[in-house]
Amino acid sequence: MRWSNLIVVLIVCLVTWSLTRLALTPPKYPVYEYRDVEVQSRVAPNAWWMKKDDGRFLYQGCPDFPNERVIWTGYVASKVRWEEQGNCKSILRSDLGFWWKRQENGDVDRIKLNQDAKEIR
To answer: Which residue range forms the structural domain that includes residue 58?
Structure first.
């Protein structure tokens, strides 16, 4: 085998390895963390109006996790962490999720809901 053929084979192998590694590496999404987040109302499956220190926002959960099991309308989360995946927010990883603010007796802190707020079950 000639040197030129060997170089071509090595380049093809290197490119194939690089493309395979790139395809198998999961994308890195930014993680956001907020404190004292109020869950004001559920407006659709996987969608809630929430309020944090800089205002109200729509939380659109990703379908990778049963969000309705851990997001409770009318309560205050002491800490919220999610991975922003473009059109939705994921809490699938174990270091992501909602941690609820608790009173001294262990009860979860509630918020006073606006009378116009509605919840879809």
So the answer is: 31-100
Residues 63-104: pLDDT tens digits? 999 999 999 999 999 999 999 999 999 999 999 999 998 888
d(CA 36, CA 78): 5
Q: Is the torsion defined by CA of 85, 79, 49, 65 positive or negative? A: positive
Q: Is the pTM of this model over 0.90?
A: no
18 assigned to some structural domain: no
Whether residue 82 contacts residue 90, with contact meaning beta carbons closer than 8 Å, is answered with yes
Dihedral sign (CA 76, 49, 72, 111): positive
In a domain, 75, yes or no: yes
CB neighbours of 8 closer than 8 A, spacing ≥ 6?
none
What is the C-alpha to C-alpha distance for residues 73 and 48, in angstroms, rounded to an integer?
A: 8
